[in-house]
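Input/output pair, single chain:
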Amino acid sequence: MFRVGNQILESLKLHRPAAATREEVVRLLKLVGIPAPESRARNYPHEMSGGMQQRVMIAMALASEPQLLVADEPTTALDVTIQAQIIELLRDLQEKFGMAILLITHNLGIVGDIADRVAVMYAGQIVESAPARELLQNPLHPYTRALMNSVPKLGAGETRLTSIRGNVPRLGAFPDGCRFHPRCPKAQPDCSQKPPALTEVQPGRWVRCPYWNSPALEPHPLQTVHA
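Output:
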């Protein structure tokens, strides 16, 4: 319903009134890689591809010159090639402006490409936090392990998909104790009684599970379903 240039201009008026000009709108569009930004500023969103729409959204976010950019599922509904372009754009902008990025995603591949540090959440709680490379190579929390094992692997020759048994609890109906224990076959009796604390178990690595290094956690809490 609104031209993309006017939407960016609205953000400028709110956060940087002195810079709320058409020239600044064009500069922002050019910054995020929009070709022919002068004419594209007059486009309506439906006249743009999904990748270009995402670039416009990033331009709107950059209009306020943020120190922290919150990117909530920035590659959803985009094909793999465009996903890679958007992630590369975010990385370039981060280096250019020296800003931090909080990336919210379910795509572990993107996490490995861009993140320095990862926090894994389950049922509204952080269950594990660690440097990205360490977490992806050696997950400690049983949910993190199960989550990573549920990602299909090309060339694995598997005839079944791996999944986590049970369902995520409903909001406001969380189980007592550890929120993951009903889905964890290796849960101990006290897991349903006392909520575990997020504890630093190794330098820079935090886990919400007192049994994170117990042999009883093997095998991972998984079940298989037909592909």
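The longest helix spans residues 80-97. Confidence is low (pLDDT under 50) at residues 217-227.
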